[in-house]
From TrEMBL:
Record-given protein name: YccV-like domain-containing protein
Domain ApaG: start-end pairs: 144-295
Domain of life assignment: Eukaryota
GO biological process, one term: error-free translesion synthesis
One Gene Ontology molecular-function label: DNA binding
Cross-referenced PROSITE patterns: APAG
SUPFAM superfamilies given in the database record: ApaG-like (SSF110069)
Entry GO CC: mitochondrial nucleoid; nucleus
Length: 303
């Protein structure tokens, strides 16, 4: 039985953008109580968004969800855009390089600020999951709730005001302070070993996108591993997100089991408009497979 984790992101065309220019201040606000005024707190200074790669240790704000985070690892995945593939003209940003009907895109594995993600409420189901090393634990899935994956264009870099810029239980384990360098943090050996041991479940290999009437669906599948199990339960995920100008993005994770080495998955999200009519938003078709079996099969065919 193969297990896979899917990260799904829905967004409407009313994505907010930030018009700030470095080195303007970044202000965080606290609502102390309904009867007391909002408290403002300086958290850092904005940097100019970079077209080049962000290094581990880079502090940032998430453009869509607004939480603070820090980069741990960069993954280069293949982007399959169903809408772009149906046109002759394809325009890519500087960090997406054309490659036939697909392109390459940079995705960052990050630590998130716990207090910020709590404010996101139901719009963000963040976290990273992987199978335990003990294969006897058939039904166990480890969840690291204070991590996320972020696209290059969704990163707003900034210089933090504090030496501990985010609240995260893994911060001191995974990063060392280097105030004389840019970025001011570097990965620890523990982080490198942690990622390498779980690379199979953490690596981003493909991203699939499709737009239906202004609503973009993005899927990132992850191969989690192989287990011998008699689990035959149905894979059913039910959420009721509300997309609006105030909350234009929704993200969640789900896990599926399938008994074959290769499969395809697709579907739709059914939304209800304010006038009572419905809209079916396409989930782009994407493959699910065991990369180790696929690699071995390719080598045999070449031989």
């Amino acid at each position: 039985m193969l297990a896979a984790c899917l990260t799904n992101k829905l967004s409407i065309g009313l994505i907010p953008t930030f018009g700030l220019r470095a080195p303007e201040f970044i202000i965080r606000r606290h609502l102390l109580s309904p009867s007391r005024p909002i408290k403002l707190e300086l958290i850092g200074h904005l940097q100019k968004a970079s077209e080049s790669l962000y290094e581990p240790g880079q502090i940032f704000l998430h453009k869509k969800f607004g939480y603070r985070g820090i980069v741990l690892q960069r993954w280069k995945g293949k982007l399959f855009d169903r809408n772009l593939q149906s046109t002759k003209s394809v325009e890519l940003t500087s960090h997406e390089s054309a490659k036939g009907e697909e392109s390459e895109i940079n995705v960052y594995q990050v630590l998130t600020d716990q207090s910020d993600t709590e404010i996101c409420n139901s719009a963000l189901k963040h976290g990273i999951t992987f199978l335990p090393d003990d294969k006897r634990a058939f039904n166990a899935i480890y969840i690291v709730s204070e991590m996320d994956y972020v696209f290059h264009d969704d990163i707003i870099p900034y210089v933090p005001q504090d030496v501990s810029p985010i609240r995260n239980q893994y911060f001191s384990e995974f990063l060392l302070s280097t105030p004389d360098k840019d970025p001011p943090f570097i990965p620890t050996d523990h982080l490198r070993r942690w990622i390498e041991a779980r690379k199979q479940s953490l690596e981003v290999t493909s991203i699939h996108r499709e737009v239906t009437e202004g609503i973009q669906t993005t899927v990132m599948p992850f191969y989690m591993g192989r287990r011998v199990t008699e689990d035959r339960k149905e894979n059913d995920v039910r959420y009721q997100p509300v997309l609006s100008p105030e909350c234009p993005v929704f993200q969640y994770h789900s896990h599926i089991h399938f008994p074959v080495e290769w499969a395809h998955m697709w579907g739709t999200f059914r939304f209800e408009r304010h006038n009572g009519t419905s809209l079916d938003v396409k989930i782009p078709s994407f493959p699910l497979y065991d990369p180790t079996s696929y690699s071995n099969s390719s080598n045999e065919n070449l031989g």
